[in-house]
Amino acid sequence: MTLAPLASARRLAQAAALAAGLAASAGAMAQAALALPGTLQTPYYRYDIDEDQLGGAPDQSSLNQPLDASSRMFIKNARFHKAGPDGRINTSDDERLRLFGINLSFAANFPAPEDAAGIARRLKRQGFNAVRLHHMDTSPGTATDPPVSLLTPGPYPSFNDAAVTRLRGFIEALAKEGIYVNLNLRVGYQFRPDVDKVPAFDASQQARPIASPIVVYYPRMVELQARFASEAIARLGLANNPALAMVEINNESGLLAAWQRREWRDAVPEQYSPELLRLWKAWLAQRYGSVEQACAAWRTCEKADEVILLTPEDAEAAESGLQVLRDKLDSQWLRLSGQRVGGRDASSDPASGKALRTRDFLLFLADTDRAYYKQIRQVIHQAAGFPVPVTGTQMGYGGILNLVSHEEMDYTDEHFYVDHPHFINGSSDVRDWRIWNVSLTGKHMDLLTGMALRRDVRKPLVVSEFNQPLPSLPAAELVPITAAFAALQDWDGLFFFDYADGSRGPAVPGSFALRGDWGKVALIGQAARLFRSGWIPANQEALVLPMPAGTQAALAASRRPDALEAHLAARHGVVEAMGWSRRIALNPSASEDTPVARPAAPAQPLRSPGGEVTYDPTQGVLGIQAPQVLGLFGRPPASPDANGLGARFTGNDPAPHASILLTAADNKPLADSQQLLLSLGSGTVGTQPGSLPPRPKQMVKHPSGSDSWTLEPDPQFMQRPSGSHNGSGQPWLTLNRADVSWPTPWTAAQVYPLDGQGKRMAALPASRVSIGGGRLTVSVQATSQETSPWYEIVPGPAQAAAGRP
């Protein structure tokens, strides 16, 4: 017998054993059996969700209706609306609309025709009514099954006909299931001098970063982007199509963003800087009458030949003068108008001429971004045939002066991530990364609530990317908490990032994908209904804060990352924690001396006016109490609120992070409902390749020595610090043995764990269900046969026979 056949036979036997083990029933549990150094000892269980057959209580399909003329989306009173039954906008039957969406990336945008309808139905079942078509331009190629880009490698924009056909059919399938599309135009395409007939880049860096903003100001690049926008809308059948909800011009990029993020070198390659300098001088001539007059105002130059493009380092040299202006602004000693910030009267101002020049340059960058967005928006509206809502880029990519650059845009957009993986060698190396396994409730709530301080009161606000990706164990709380806060703030759209990079193959938990991350999926549908159905009312009191261009410029010049927060606190007494009780927004049209009533400092725990949401940052606990929903997130208190959801973990040491929702599956108030859905979100990991019996991958300390975590290496890459962030094998969910309780008028109840299709399994025995003191208590995940992330609760036979709620 030779070694090769023996090794082959052994591999086949191991593969067969692995396949058999991973086919275990949904309730199969596994305690972490491998005691690796620094292992996070967490119990898991195996569970699979069948997205194609999902029904029963977790199915949210009833939220959607096919899109038609009545579905056309538009903006009215700074909110998204749809046209209503008469099919005409701005009439009496217009209906308010919120979007709960998800991103599709790369090949996921181009499913095979036989898969398109099924994927659309999957998304509908989970409560989504919009998809964001993302990274369609990033990887031009000739592949047709599947395509990974809307483009081929030909001169930009050369369209991949197979991709166009597939996406056009997919959009039709999505519309039939009541799902709108958010069209992203420029995300990752990198112009190529030899192919696209644009100037060469610096010899030291031929390939530009995907966020390089040369596309904003170089005329040929702008012209080609306008052509791409027009042709993409036409080819995809989106002209006069109510399925087109919104368009984003340029993802995470802009001149302001390059300055703000200190990525300025990428913004001005040597052969491109003359064009930006030309625009800078033209801007100065328009503002001051001539470049020489600008030099006189700044006291830094005498003639046009001495005007240069500034850099962030130049701004840092003027820091002392800028600080004077910021201090005066925040101390209410100085009112800055847009004209004054232009520096026309530098001699009477204690700030240096360099400081005023810096702020001029920032306003120039904002106006240059603005001209680009305005031009592309006009092309979009002409191609679409109706005023589809358009935005430029995200507020976090450009900062407060995006209020200027986005003056003509229709809505504002945000992104936020909690515990985003740090890829030590860049995102291309997926085997050396780390996370901190922190929670939104425990440490990073400001990432969510801080977005309330950047909303433009005149426009809808959309969060088009948010996630706390695998394998962060508290991550399941992110979507329902975001939905609850967005409801309080009356925001207009949320888009989780993302569904998957591809549409076929098994659901493997990894990277940023929702598909396979069943610990998050367990709560997605209820979060969708919470946000879309208005279960949590918006805060009635509004804090609208003046933010004119002058104030924006003074803040934008600061190197402080919290300049806006510091200003709002000093000038108006407003902090992000007030977002739990008030709707917060900025008004760029108001002057700085517009009176604003100084609000009282928020008391802890933070609470919405009606008590629907309560957050205690000192304890790291958030509760939801509304007629149709109860929620508990973070570390459960020992004694729950009498009217709230309570949980006592019984089998874990230390106790896991709670991510629990109870909702009325029949959409009635919980007190009147005849069908409840109790869901337990959790962390999710994949299977360690080659493990026999199959076991979950373990969370281990990252070898960097910091307090960070990663996944154990894959067997074939044991020399690397991490297992692949792209994931492997079938999903395992963290086990949450607990006694969960809530108020009830019932006297008897039956509780059914649900399988991965939403079907009832055997009811829990009476020993796991009790009612006393007006509360129903259910012991969940006690045995392998009873373990599920979903439990359907209905009245017990005696109560049902009596006809009582």
Q: Any key phrases for this structure?
A:
single chain, about 800 residues, TIM Barrel, disordered N terminus, GH, TAT_signal, Capsular polysaccharide biosynthesis protein, signal
What does this structure look like?
- Strands 10-9-8-7-6-15-14-11 form an eight-stranded parallel beta sheet. Strands 18-19-20-21-23-24-33-30 form an eight-stranded antiparallel beta sheet.
- 28% of the residues lie in helices and 18% in strands.
- Mean pLDDT is 89; it is low at 1-28, 30-35 and 330-350.
- The N and C termini lie far apart (72 Å).
- Among the domains are: 44-50 and 607-795, no CATH class; 61-263 and 385-533, TIM Barrel (Alpha-Beta Barrel).
- It has 20 helices and 33 strands.
- The longest helix is centred in the middle third of the chain and has 32 residues, at 353-384.
- The protein has 805 residues and is an alpha+beta fold.
- It comes from Orrella dioscoreae.
- This is Capsular polysaccharide biosynthesis protein.
- Keywords: Signal.
- InterPro entries: GH (IPR017853), TAT_signal (IPR006311).
- Residues 1-30 form the signal peptide.
